[in-house]
Amino acid sequence: MARLALHLDLLKEFPNLEKPVRERVGEVFAKFEEATHAGLHLEKITGARDDRFRTIRIDQYWRGVVLAPESGDTYTLLRVMGHDEAYDWAKRRKASVNLATGGVEIRDVAALDASLPHMERMARSAPERLFENVKDSELRRLGIDEHTLPLARVLTAPFQLEAARGLLPPVQWDVLYGLASGMTPEEVWAELGPAIVEDVDPHDLDAAVRRSSDRVLLVEGPEELMSALAHPFDLWRIYLHPVQRSVVEASYRGPARVSGGPGTGKTVVAIHRAHRLARTGGRVLLTTFTSTLADALESSLRLLAENDAAGDADEVLSRVRVEHVDRLANRVFREAHGGLDLLSPQRERQLWEQVLEELGLDFSPGFLAEEWRQVVLARKVETAAEYLAAKRTGRGRGMSAAHRARVWQAITGFRALLAEQNLWTYETVTEEAARLLGEEGSRPFEHIVVDEAQDLNPGQWRLLRAAVDEGADDLFIAGDTHQRLYGPQVSLAEVGINIRGRSAKLRINYRTTAQILEWSLGLMRGQSVDDLDGGADSISGCRSEMRGAEPVLTGLATWQAELEHLVHTVRSWTEAGVLPGEIGVAARSNRVVEQVVAELDRQGVSARALAKGNTPEDEVAVGTMHRMKGLEFRCMAVVGAADSKLPAPKSLTPEVEDPGAYARDLMRERSLLFVACTRAREQLSVSWHENPSPFIEAILSP
Ligand SMILES: Nc1ncnc2c1ncn2[C@@H]1O[C@H](COP(=O)(O)OP(=O)(O)OP(=O)(O)O)[C@@H](O)[C@H]1O
Q1: 497 and 582 share a domain?
Q2: How far apart are CA 352 and CA 425, in angstroms?
Q3: Which residue of 363, 393, 399, 645 could cross-link 403, Cys pair, CB 3.0 to 4.6 Å?
Q4: Ligand 1 centre and the CA of 304: distance in Å?
């Protein structure tokens, strides 16, 4: 039976078509199966380079370009264009099968043929070629075919490869880009996705289309067609990169992790994986760090489930609980003990002071609070002997045994006060919840999927470990340690989670343009960042396939001038058609956020501060860099990136007091700027007054 498939490029351009045309496309293809029985009217194209391209009439003016294989019965709708443009587009192109991935590829052979002689001439006088150290056989193994090879051989510099992007099928371009950016052939091979087991027949286009789930959606009937056409922006629901798909579908023998730079689809993968695991019948917890992000996960999961052709949304959703990790702790605690009295930071400080006074000790309350959290709670230290032997990595100067004994005395006194007065902190609630779950015979979940994993603290990891039995597909962890804003550095092995040999990395950024991504990655260059597992992580190789404007960096004399510049920037975006709700403004502090909202309001630009549980939809969203975590905006302005504000002086432990803590605080401030900048999809403006932040200064004048 004839099957309709939708190519990714079609859905990308679909929202730009006018509504009556979009509706007409739906009508034409909703009847596709019946029409093919009765003889579907697909026009042949005279003078075509590939006679498998056909057109189909949408209305008097519009045509669909369809790929119709000689054998098989899958028809792929590639584009919808005006009559002349459609014929021209189709005449210039050829379809082929990638021998490494088995997927279908389409390329503009006319443009390739026209460019090659010129590039060959240029290469003759060049001292070296870009891929001279890579053998033909290696390139072929990676799917570079005989049409691409001559071009690859005459490239002499990365900028030429950049310019040749439109001439090559995206997967082949990506392979060359990976090699040009220093990846080994093995690394590039791993990026192509799981190896295909069957032999690839280069002439069997039908099989190739069926294998191309990263670019082609095989439509299961009119309902799925309508759902895909109704949400053309949500491409993540439909097309997964082969590496994303393999991570979503894999069966792991234990905890597994996916990492990757900003915008590489870690959240997308987490949502698909939770959906898939729920479908197998298990109870799933989909969790993250904040309540706002948990709400976003929940609505995306719903969208995915409700538009799935299987029609089992209610059943699947009933098996998934979506809640942030503090809420899980709170719920488990309350179910066992009822209400709880949570200690405010001021009250906590008073308690530390009380203990110090009673014991006649001379420490600062801040030091003790940190020692308790980062050493005692993080390492689950329970006795004086354990504390004496505990590692205090990153806690500054060493302490003598006598010194430690006094600190332990203070911490024990503090805990006694908490117990006496039945007072709790987030950390002790989490610790108690983990203990309760550990005691219970049955665990509440069969699978846990964690997003924004880099921000969880050891206590939260222990809670999650206790909430699921050890076994296949128990914990799935998505995160990027370059974006750590809250949690301390954690080694998963130390909290009983062993991910060795079960980790994957995503490298293609689907959010940001290459220009914005490249600039933002510069903020992190040279920084050493852990990988949650005792090793080092890197975001090298993270790249975007989208092109766009360079980030705009502006230094002004005063804060007032910077505010005026911001108003001007936001206005220029709205005048260009960007909706206020598609614009984000990030600042380091709440005070600056308030000033920005007030100024935008005064200038007649409707704006609102991002707050807990509040993501404005039709107003410019202004928020602290912390609040920007996990969000994205078409246009993003980062303000107040001045040396007096970023790093925020109050957030840095003095270097003389504790060099380790200082380095960690500094890294967190850098990550804040990195997170804020990588929220942009199309435009990024970064501004400061007086002197730029040292994080920016370093890339302004490397
Ligand atoms: N396969 C895909 N096809 C199309 N769009 C995708 C795909 N994967 C991800 N995206 C889109 O890319 C953007 C970033 O995805 P996502 O938020 O999952 O990335 P992330 O790695 O979690 O980002 P961050 O770490 O920066 O928060 C989203 O708009 C998402 O819809």
Answers
A1: no
A2: 13
A3: 399
A4: 14
Coil vs helix vs strand at 545: coil
Q: Which of 485, 510, 632, 678 to mutate to test the pocket of ligand 1 (most atoms within 8 A of CB)?
A: 510
- In short, whether 520's Cβ falls inside 6 Å of ligand 1 is no
**For residue 654, what are its two tokens?**
């003095």
Q: Detail the residues annotated as belonging to a binding site for ATP.
A: 260-267
In a domain, 471, yes or no: yes
In tens, the pLDDT along 299-310 reads: 999 999 998 878
CATH number at residue 570: 3.40.50.300
Q: Does residue 339 lie within any of the structural domains?
A: no
> What separation in Å is there between the alpha carbon of 273 and the centre of ligand 1?
14
DSSP secondary structure letters along 343-398 = PPHHHHHHHHHHHHHHHT----HHHHHHHIIIIIITTT--SHHHHHH---TTS-S-
Q: Using an 8 Å Cβ cutoff, are 681 and 631 in contact?
A: no
CA dihedral 257, 263, 269, 272 (to 10 degrees): 160
Which CATH number do you get for residue 25? 3.30.2310.20
Q: What is the pTM of this model?
A: 0.89
Closest residue by CA, ligand 1 atom 9? 265
What's the first-to-final CA gap in the chain, in angstroms?
A: 61
**Cα–Cα dist 415/164, whole Å:** 65
Which one of 400, 424, 448 terminates a domain?
424
**513 CB under 6 A from ligand 1?**
no
CA torsion through residues 173, 178, 181, 184, sign: negative
Cα torsion 680, 685, 688, 692: sign: positive
Count how many domains the chain has: 5
Task: Pick out the chain residues at pLDDT < 70.
Answer: 1, 33-40, 197, 394, 396, 612-616, 701-702
- At 400 the pLDDT is 84
Q: Are residues 323 and 458 in the same domain?
A: yes
Question: 219 and 252: one domain?
Answer: no
Same domain flag for 188 and 210 = no
Q: Do residues 595 and 663 both lie within one domain?
A: yes
| Domain end among 508, 531, 566 | 508
Which residue's CA is the closest to the ligand 1 atom numbered 27? Answer: 630
Tell me the percentage of the chain whose pLDDT exceeds 90.
70
The upper half-sphere exposure of residue 622, i.e. CA atoms within 13 Å in the direction of its Cβ, equals 26
DSSP 8-state symbol, 376? I
In a domain, 432, yes or no: no
Mapping DSSP to helix (H, G, I), strand (E, B) and coil, where does residue 255 land?
Answer: coil
- Measure 233 CA to ligand 1 centroid, in angstroms: 12
**Residues 610 and 478 placed together within one structural domain of the fold:** no
**What is the b/e burial string over 441-460, where b = at least 16 CB atoms within 10 angstroms of the residue's CB?**
eebbbbbbbbbbbbbbbbbb
The structure tokens listed for 329 are: 């702790």
Q: Is residue 526 part of a domain?
A: no
Query: What domain range is 73 assigned to?
Result: 3-96+206-230
Minimal CA–CA distance to 448: which of 463, 459, 435?
463
Of 73, 213, 84, 239, residue with least CA distance to 65: 84
pLDDT confidence of residue 314:
95
The answer to whether the CB of 268 is under 6 A from ligand 1 is yes
Do 177 and 248 fall within a single domain? Answer: no
Residue 585 · residue 622 · CB < 8 Å: yes
Contact, 170 vs 216, CB < 8 A? no
